[in-house]
Design a protein that fits this description.
single chain, 245 residues, binds nicotinamide-adenine-dinucleotide
Length: 245
């Protein structure tokens, strides 16, 4: 579905991001993954190599627009273009407001929101020149109703939806589509490590009766990145088994 397409993904070293890399490789895209550290990027690249998939990886500081500009320029020099950007890196929170330092709130907003702004800003000039592109953001089901603690996380994901909807309108004249996927609880390392007695009550709240797999989310990215979604932009696609609360 993605033959000849070049995709860059942040937070591509594990969880939802790593599975998205696999699905995009299976669909013949060229993939460049970003992670936060040299070691985790190298580890992901060698894991994928063992599975028969060749990918490149970088670990730019998503705070530094200059650094992002350089790495994006390097990628465009090597591959000739960037067709798809997936802004997936993110961190969560679960403390009550009185236990949360303002620095912690700022840290979440910085990675979950500002980094999307920075990364998109670095890539958009090339997409505009190409007169096509797809930007996909990872939101969350908590962007719909919030959550009862860790306010920074849902606040950041509401902002992700705002960025997605607004940029879809700003960039549509350049044939750049901007959408988000809003996963429910997804079995990444963190969730997989939870004890059965914590998982069971969670499953009971999900109408489809199971926790999401990273591949469920990766497949939604695949659809939105592909030409099957050529008339879809500004959409927040829930992939949560109808658990939206
Ligand atoms: P994860 O913790 O397994 O992976 C997070 C990724 O983000 C890693 O690749 C890591 O390298 C990257 N990252 C973390 N801090 C970074 C930093 N400072 N700079 C650059 N990169 C950094 O998480 P996941 O569960 O796969 O989550 C991926 C996305 O999905 C996040 O945006 C998260 O909010 C969202 N999400 C996850 C779930 C879930 O249940 N797992 C549910 C809804 C939304």
């Amino acid at each position: 579905m993605l033959e000849g397409k070049v995709m860059v993904i942040t937070g591509g070293t594990r969880g939802i991001g790593l599975e998205t890399v696999r699905v995009f490789k299976e669909n013949k895209a060229e993939v460049i993954l970003f992670g936060s550290k040299k070691e985790t990027v190298e580890e992901a690249i060698s894991k994928l190599k063992e599975e028969g998939m060749e990918v490149k990886g970088y670990y730019p500081n998503l705070d530094h627009i200059e650094e992002l500009n350089k790495v994006v320029e390097k990628i465009v020099k090597e591959y000739g273009k960037i067709d798809i950007l997936i802004n997936n890196a993110g961190i969560s929170a679960n403390k009550k407001i009185e236990d949360t330092a303002s620095e912690e709130f700022a840290k979440i907003m910085n990675l979950n929101v500002n980094a999307i702004f920075n990364m998109t800003k670095a890539v958009v000039p090339y997409m505009k020149e190409q007169h096509h592109g797809v930007v996909l953001n990872t939101s969350s089901m908590v962007s719909i109703y919030g959550q009862p603690s860790g306010v920074g996380y849902p606040a950041s994901k509401f902002a992700v939806n705002g960025l997605t909807k607004s940029l879809s309108r700003e960039l549509a004249p350049f044939q750049i589509r901007v959408n988000a996927v809003a996963p429910g609880i997804t079995k990444t390392d963190m969730v997989a490590a939870l004890p059965e007695e914590m998982i069971e009550p969670l499953i009971k709240t999900i109408p489809l009766g199971r926790i999401g797999e990273p591949r469920d989310i990766a497949n939604a990215f695949l659809f939105l990145a592909s030409d099957l979604a050529s008339y879809i932009t500004g959409e927040i696609l829930s992939v949560d088994g109808a658990a939206r609360s």
